Amino acid sequence: MEDVRETIQFYDSNWEPFFQIKDGDSIKITFGEDGGDAEFKCRFHGDMRVEIEGLKFLSYIFAEEMDEAGWTYEPVTEQEPKIDIVFAKYGEKLHDVSIPITEAALRDLVGGDYELTPVNAYSIGTPDMRVDGPDGAAKM
User: What gap in Å lies between CA 136 and CA 127, rounded to an integer?
Assistant: First the structure.
């Protein structure tokens, strides 16, 4: 199955391509010499633009800021299954929440075996996953 989510290109501080992730995936940032780290969700915002936990960056500026701070960053390769929920109150900006979900819980949610199909939702600017239940009906 083809993953149709947009690709986010990360660069090093010399503006050389460093790694790529898909829209909605996460990076891990390690903070300086103390070795503390955290994972941050990333969103595609056009060529050379990325949103990391709500903060928007030009990709190469992000690389320069990480280098200046002495922090390192890398893709998170093992990402647990999750459901992204997008919501907004009238007149406010969209918010999204990722909820980790187990395979068993997802099967219970759709009523049996399922197939995940990545779908881009350009109208709201965030990727969705369409889940096809055992009866073939699409469940969002």
Answer: 21
Residues in CB range of 61: below 8 A, 6 or more apart: none
pLDDT tens, per residue, the chain with 140 residues: 466 778 999 999 888 999 999 888 899 999 977 778 999 989 898 888 999 988 899 988 999 999 999 999 999 987 666 666 666 777 777 676 666 667 777 777 777 776 655 544 433 444 444 444 455 444 44
Q: In this structure, which amino acid lies at residue 72?
A: T
Q: Where are the domains of the chain?
A: 7-75, 82-134
CB 117 within 8 A of CB 132: yes
Rg over alpha carbons for the chain, rounded to the nearest Å, is 17
CA terminus-to-terminus distance, the chain: 18
Say which amino acid occupies 58: L
- Whether the model clears a pTM of 0.90, i.e. scores above it, the answer is no
Query: Which two structure tokens, joined as six digits, stand for 56?
Result: 């928007």
